[in-house]
Amino acid sequence: MDLGLTNKNVIVMASSKGLGRATALEFAKAGANVFLTSRSEASLDETADELKQLTGNEKIYYQPCDMSSADDIENLFQEVNQKLGSVDILINNTGGPKAGGFEAVTDEDWYESFEKNLLSYIRTTRAVIPHMKEKQFGRIINVSSSSTKEVIDHLILSNTFRSGMVGLTKSLARELAPYNILVNTVGPGRIETDRIIELDTITADKEGISMEEVIDKNNQHIPLGRYGKPEEFAKIVVFLASSANTYLTGQSLVVDGGMLKAL
Question: How many CB atoms lie within 10 A of CB 202?
């Protein structure tokens, strides 16, 4: 299948590791021009070199960006427009918010998570829409969480703001469809990333069991019997963002190995 990604301009947020890095790698393999971001310039430099070596694609660019900073996002897209000219595909992605139940989080935690995990997506989307409208083509993928389908205990911030992301996605999909701009949300289930290690470590400490036991217990609830790999998630994102997808928009999908029972 031809994904039509050769020389498409793609920006992947939070892409120096984890799901963002895996997604950027798949785009680079497909011949896209890829712009990376994260807070660490050293990590970005290392990731850019790795992607070039793995794919032979030299059109890999990067700039540090704190997703909670409006100024950083504005400066980022000035650089993106200078390097790429415009953005065809935006992959919104950030690290997960602080773990904890309702009584464990403060007003400051709520404000921080809102700015990092929802307002940042709004700001980046605002930056790319004018060019996408002009070109009559665009793909926006909002990376979320399985909590958009089934709330996760002790993750009140994620449950709240990831759901807001779904509302944003559906609204944008309807507004932007006349311009051939497709907008979707993709949430990971238990994918092997630093975030899942963090959450499993919290569970292990709370229950007084080993990480291996936590993983074994979780695998029992996954029909495929294992955690997913970042590249398995990334391939779904790349398909949805490609020219091969011409009709699916406004959807909230979960890549979870069949874990969720919710319809």
Answer: 14
CB–CB of 148/185 below 8 Å?
A: yes
Task: Specify if 75 maps to a domain.
Answer: yes
- In a 10 Å sphere around its CB, with 0-12 CB exposed, 13-18 middle and 19+ buried, how is residue 30 labelled? buried
Query: Where residue 143 sits, what CATH number does that domain have?
Result: 3.40.50.720
Six token digits for residue 97: 């918010």
Strands 60-64 and 89-92: unpaired
Q: Are 93 and 134 in contact (CB under 8 A)?
A: no
> At 233, which amino acid appears?
F
pLDDT band per the 50, 70, 90 thresholds, residue 198 = confident
DSSP assigned state of 155: B
Residue among 161, 155, 92 at smallest CA distance from 121 = 92
From the number of C-beta atoms within 10 Å of its C-beta (0-12, 13-18, 19+), residue 225 rates as exposed
pLDDT in tens, 226-258: 999 999 999 999 999 999 999 999 999 999 999
**Is 106 within the bounds of a domain?**
no
Q: Where are the alpha helices (DSSP H) in 115-229?
A: 120-135, 156-176, 194-207, 211-219
Q: Measured between alpha carbons, how far is 124 from 62 in angstroms, rounded to an integer?
A: 15
Total domains in the chain come to: 1
pTM: 0.95
Say what the alpha-carbon torsion angle 59, 63, 68, 72 is, to the nearest 10 degrees. Answer: -120
Residue 173 domain-assigned (yes or no): yes
Give the domain range for residue 57.
9-96+114-189+230-255
Q: How far is CA 167 from the centre of its chain?
A: 16
- Tell me whether residue 44 is in a domain: yes
The tens digit of pLDDT for each residue in 32-71 reads 999 999 999 999 999 999 999 999 999 999 999 999 999 9
